[in-house]
Design brief:
The chain has helices at residues 2-34, 127-130, 144-169, 172-194, 196-302, and strands at 36-43, 55-58, 61-71, 78-85, 95-99, 107-111, 137-138. The relative contact order is 0.05. Strand 2 and strand 3 form a beta hairpin. The termini are far apart. Strands 5-6-2-3-4-1-7 form a seven-stranded mixed β-sheet. By secondary structure, it is an alpha/beta fold. It contains five helices and seven strands, in the order αββββββαβααα. Among the domains are: 33-141; 157-194. This is Mammalian cell entry protein. It comes from Sphingomonas panacis. InterPro entries: Mce/MlaD (IPR003399).
Length: 320
């Protein structure tokens, strides 16, 4: 009886210790979870290779794990909830990509954070817009193998289109045309080879012509320089002298105009008073000249006595 009581007591103590240990482990787990941050990522691509517990890395450094993968109301998107360490810098500009591998497992890579940017959080106003499931949302971008797989259909379509066009280019009709073009090219090449000496002579003449044109241009330049020098040495001084002459003539005209202006009253008086007196004087001189002429004629005919006495009458002899 006592042995059975001891076994019951030992079992009870062990059970109590196990319950305490389980409660401690749960507390530790909750404490660790409380120190992590959760974010949602909405991928518009296949999440093949991801699973609950897949690693999450920030710039290649392991920092958390995938907590949940679920479908959304929009069949184009897959929601992936991750849990990362509290000290992970999930800032505005951070984006998530799925990094595949050849082993089949995939990881989530976080990068693009900018220093000084604010952290990604749920806004206080209208939080359901950016946090539809109660946690902040990290934007997703296509990258790595996922981006290659997403772009594979377009790439295959372009390759198919290019192949069709290449086949059209190499059709029988186009091949004949290409053959004709190549034949014409061969004939043209042969003709050019035959005309090689003539082409060389033409090039030599062209080189000579260009040299002559260069010499002519140089001579024209020298002539322009000489003309310039002549203008500077001859024409400009002559122009300067002509300007001085014109200025001197202008000054003389101004002086003459002033002299005429000053002499105008004297000229008026000369024309009104002096000219009539000069006319009378000339008349008197003319009369005196006539009188002197008459005296001279008397002297010639009768001598000096003709001036003081009467002329002698001629003697007449009577006859029978």
């Amino acid at each position: 009886m006592e042995t059975r009581s001891n076994h019951v007591l030992v079992g009870s103590v062990v059970l109590i210790l196990l319950l305490v240990m389980a409660a401690f482990l749960v507390w530790i787990a909750r404490f660790g979870a409380a120190t992590d941050k959760e974010y949602d990522i909405f991928f518009k691509q296949s999440v093949d290779g991801l699973a609950k517990g897949s690693a999450v890395a920030f710039s290649g450094v392991p920092t958390g794990e995938v907590k949940e993968i679920a479908l959304t109301n929009d069949p184009q998107f897959v929601r992936v909830r991750i849990s990362v360490n509290r000290d992970t810098p999930i800032l505005v500009g951070t984006a998530a990509t799925i990094q595949g591998s050849f082993t089949g497992t995939s990881t989530i890579q976080l990068d693009g954070a900018v220093k000084g940017a604010p952290p990604i959080t749920c806004p206080e106003t209208n939080p359901l817009l950016d946090c539809p499931n109660g946690v902040p949302t990290i934007p997703a971008k296509a990258g790595g193998l996922g981006a290659l797989l997403n772009s594979a259909p377009k790439l295959l379509e372009r390759i198919s289109t290019l192949t069709e066009r290449f086949n059209e280019l190499l059709s029988d009709k186009n091949q004949q045309s290409i053959t004709g073009i190549l034949a014409n090219t061969n004939r043209l090449t042969g003709a050019l080879a035959d005309r090689g000496p003539e082409i060389a002579a033409t090039l030599a003449e062209m080189r000579t012509t260009l040299k002559q044109a260069s010499d002519a241009a140089k001579q024209i330049g020298d002539l322009a320089g000489s003309t310039n020098a002549m203008i500077n040495e001859d024409v400009r001084p002559a122009t300067k002298n002509l300007s001085a002459t014109v200025a001197s003539a202008q000054h003389s005209m101004e002086t003459l105009d002033a002299a005429i202006t000053d002499a105008r009253p004297g000229i008026k008086a000369f024309s009104k008073e002096t000219i009539p007196e000069v006319g009378a004087l000339i008349h008197d001189l003319r009369n005196m000249s006539q009188a002197l002429t008459a005296v001279a004629e008397k002297l010639d005919r009768g001598g000096a006595g003709s001036l003081v006495g009467q002329p002698k009458l001629p003697d007449y002899k009577g006859g029978k």
